[in-house]
Amino acid sequence: ALAESCATGRPLVVMNAPFDLTLLDRELKRHRASSLAGYLDGVPMRVVDPRVLDKHLDRYRKGRRTLTDLCASYEVVLDGAHDAAADATASLELVRAVCRRFSTRLERLSPSELHALQATWHAAQARGLEAWFAKSGTPERV
């Protein structure tokens, strides 16, 4: 179903995508002997991650960026946190809320362009976190 959805060009909304998609890839390899890329069979995946978007677009906002915290910040209802359907629905509504708040910066981007930008933003965010860990005396690889 995921490959078919991606084949339509429709973006996939994933909260904390770097973690969840890596986990999905490893579990597919472990249980099905194929990677996520193998299941997609060359079909591009366009991901929209509300956590990456918020962290880049509202970078100076203090506070955590969990689904619960982001929903509160963007006034999105999260009914039953940690329930797959509730989390997925809230993630979609969260992306909509982030896009409304930052519409002037996002409205002209295609899903492919937004996906590519998010990959760049996430990499920069990871480097920044690694630098912070190094300054704190606990070097970590993110």
Automatic annotation (TrEMBL):
It comes from the Bacteria. Pfam families: RNase_T. Residues 6-94 form the Exonuclease domain. Keywords: Exonuclease, Hydrolase, Nuclease. The keyword Nuclease applies. GO terms for molecular function: exonuclease activity; nucleic acid binding. The keyword Oxidoreductase does not apply. This is 3'-5' exonuclease. The lineage of its organism: Bacteria, Bacillati, Actinomycetota, Actinomycetes, Kitasatosporales.
